[in-house]
Amino acid sequence: MRRFRPCLSLAVTVLITAMLLLLAACQGEGADQPRAEAVSPDREAMTYYGRMILVDHRGPKAQIHLQSRDAPLWFSQVRDAVAFTLSPEEPSDIAAIYVTDMARADGWDHPQHWIAAQDATYVIDSDRRGGMGALEAVPFSKRDAAEAFVTEHGGEVMSWADIPEEYIFERSIEAVESPRMMQHDH
User: Fold this and answer.
1) 69-82 burial string, b = 16+ CB within 10 Å, else e?
2) What are the tens digits of pLDDT across the range 104-160?
3) pLDDT tens, position by position, 77-107
4) Phi, psi dihedrals of residue 169, rounded to the nearest 5°
5) Which domains does the chain have, with CATH numbers?
6) Which of 102, 89, 86 minimizes the C-alpha distance to 167?
7) Order of strands across the sheet with 73-75?
8) Which residues, in sequence order, are CB contacts of 2 under 8 Å at separation 6+?
């Protein structure tokens, strides 16, 4: 006949309850924290790749907010921000990504309105080049604006998640190395 040990049973119950509370607290960590807000760049904003003054570059831009940093990382091309997220060497503690909304931009030169990257519709393979002359993923808050852009500049409409890795890494490098790169909108 087995003897019941109330003290041991109580200790196990307390231990399991404490572990469940700790697990719930860890899973909820950060859930109450608001998402990082988009920031307007100034002349002090330097690009993550190349350390250049962001506002000196034309075309769509991006900013990535990391949990481990107070200031955003700046990108003179949306394509570079996509590359950052795909690169295993780069930090992965991404809190938010914003891109300039070309649907609300007054032109190609200096777009000022920001939207969450995952909410945008993108055009790839257009005849427009990003701030450094490479192929660009041009972001729009409205799909119809992206489709109108395709009518004028060519390309293909897609979401952030659907932008092909080979477009970012392989085809962009080929485009920069081609003679046509000298014709970019810089």
Assistant:
1) eeebbbbbbbbbbb
2) 999 898 899 999 999 999 999 999 998 777 899 999 999 999 999 999 999 999 999
3) 999 999 999 999 999 999 999 999 999 999 8
4) -95, -50
5) 54-183 (3.30.70.2060)
6) 86
7) 73-75, 62-66, 94-100, 114-116
8) none
